[in-house]
Design a protein that fits this description.
The complex is a heterodimer of chains A (about 290) and B (about 170). Chain A has about 290 residues and is an alpha+beta fold. Chain A is built from 9 helices and 9 strands. In chain A, strand 2 and strand 3 form a beta hairpin. The longest helix of chain A has 26 residues. Chain B is globular. In chain B, strands 4-5-2-1-3-6 form a 6-stranded antiparallel sheet, with helices on both faces. Chain B is α+β, with helices and mostly antiparallel strands and about 170 residues long. Classes of the chains: A alpha+beta (about 290), B alpha+beta (about 170). The interface between A and B is medium-sized, with 27 and 28 residues.
Chain lengths: ~290, ~170
């Protein structure tokens, strides 16, 4: 099985991106890392499932023995010592008992200190995969539909004008996508924004609203996208990301903001980023006192 | 003579460094997105020299939205606006603050595209842009609501009341 791996250093999060391509049955394998969020995208083989999303790594039983995660300060390290062959086999093995053919599943799992859990816990997850956390399960066909829908929403947004503090059709659709399709939606939106495939105004508006959506299940992935977007080439997009982070009030973004401030060339935006940073640091002080 | 305030989205106004394709005396077109006219008039708010009413105006405008959000604005000198031979008219504002609506709302009237361009240039080149963070906006609105009847709570949108965590009427 041929594996191609590309790895780039991300200036904002300090984490690494992997793009791994497989031969059949896995045509491609994309893994995002960053913040507290890890996401794997595994196109469907005949008997396997396709998506796996890991917010935290407590229940890394699918990878038991094959993956290790560690923590440095507040940052997550990328995968280490992962045997991708075994990972694939493990997914196929674990997926069969409770997943229909062609079904796509997204699972959020919790981190343990050791990066591995007991067999008991592992079995429990196998038996009740859908009640461990709120999960979004969509079929393979629905993934394609979701991609189209996200594209349509952004296409529709191009016809609107946006104003701070005002709800638009676009913002309502973005919120609806996130709440109903969870990390699947974030993944598709991330693709459009981080690859800069949509107009800066639209990306900025989407990021503002991603910071506002009241949805715990996608908190980590939204935070991850907002932090990553601080590195986009458009100042308008970076501004939207900063406003989204301010709305989330997420102190985990402090490091990303500090790096973005260092790199920011627009004096006005730099000042705005500094204000968001001060807000977040104020939160830490507030919590401490 | 005072100042004029126009709410904007700062993201449209970042000006450094100047894009290479832009002539030295020209401005980008994105800021025009914040200067949309209606019946050839542009809504602005008068701010006195001491800026004593700035807080009231910002709070009134920020409360007149669907939800609590950051408030970006630009201020220019009234004298500079009048030097462009632009006409101003006192008109009733649409915020939930009646007094602010009556005392401080203005329209720049009879705007042609050329005059709007001049005004945009003035805002862009000489305007003072600033942002009030969402957290502070929330606190400002709640403070004014707690102070009495400056802002008519019943005029706030249902979603704004939700956003502020207020019990609805």
């Amino acid at each position: 099985m041929a594996i191609e791996t590309g790895m780039t250093e991300d200036f904002v999060t300090g984490c690494r991106d992997f793009d791994v391509s497989y031969d059949e049955p896995f045509e491609q394998f994309r893994q995002y890392t960053g913040g507290a969020h890890q996401q794997l995208v595994i196109p469907c083989g005949r008997d396997t499932f396709r998506y796996k999303s890991i917010n935290k790594l407590k229940s890394l039983d699918f990878w038991k023995g094959q993956a290790r995660f560690s923590r440095q300060g507040e940052s997550w390290e990328a995968y280490q010592d992962v045997d991708l062959d075994k990972l694939k086999a493990r997914i196929i093995l674990e997926g069969k008992p409770w997943l229909d053919q062609g079904q796509v599943v997204l699972i959020n799992v919790e981190r343990s200190e050791e990066g591995a859990i007991s067999e008991t816990e592992s079995r429990k997850i196998e038996k009740t995969p859908c009640v461990m956390r709120k999960e979004v399960i969509v079929s393979e066909g629905e993934v394609g539909e979701l991609k189209e829908r996200v594209g349509r929403v952004f296409g529709m947004g191009a016809e609107e004008s946006f104003e701070d503090g005002m709800i638009s059709k676009f913002s309502s659709e973005i919120c609806s996508l996130v709440i109903n399709k969870g990390d699947f939606a974030i993944l598709e939106i991330s693709h459009l924004i981080l690859k800069e495939k949509v107009a800066p105004e639209l990306a900025s508006e989407a990021l503002r609203w991603l910071g506002r959506v009241d949805d715990d299940n996608t908190y980590s992935s939204r935070s991850w996208l907002l932090q990553r977007s601080l590195g986009c080439s458009s100042a308008y997009v970076r501004d939207g990301a900063a406003l989204g982070i301010a709305s989330m009030n997420d102190t985990r973004a402090i490091q990303s903001l500090e790096k973005a401030i260092e790199c920011e060339k627009y004096a006005e935006l730099k000042k705005d980023l500094e204000e968001v940073l001060a807000q977040l640091k104020g939160n830490i002080c507030g919590a401490a006192s | 003579m005072g100042l004029l305030l126009r709410k904007i989205r700062k993201g449209r106004w970042y000006k450094e460094p100047q894009p290479s394709w832009l002539c030295a005396d020209d401005i980008p077109s994105d800021p025009l997105g914040d200067l949309v006219t209606s019946e050839n008039s542009l809504s602005v708010w008068y701010i006195d020299d001491e800026r004593a009413n700035l807080r009231d105006v910002i709070t009134a405008m920020a409360a007149n939205r669907d939800h609590v959000s950051n408030f970006d604005y630009v201020l220019v000198g009234l004298e500079d606006v009048l030097s462009l031979n632009l006409k101003l008219e006192s008109t009733e504002g649409g915020s939930p603050n009646k007094e602010a609506n009556r005392r401080w709302h203005r329209d720049v009237i009879e705007l042609s595209s050329a005059k709007l361009g001049q005004l945009a240039k003035l805002f862009y080149q000489k305007g003072q842009r600033d942002r009030v963070q969402e957290k502070i906006v929330r606190s400002m609105i709640l403070t004014v609501l707690g102070e009495g009847d400056k802002i008519d709570k019943s005029k706030l949108s249902s979603s704004m009341q939700d956003s502020l965590g207020l019990e609805k009427n």
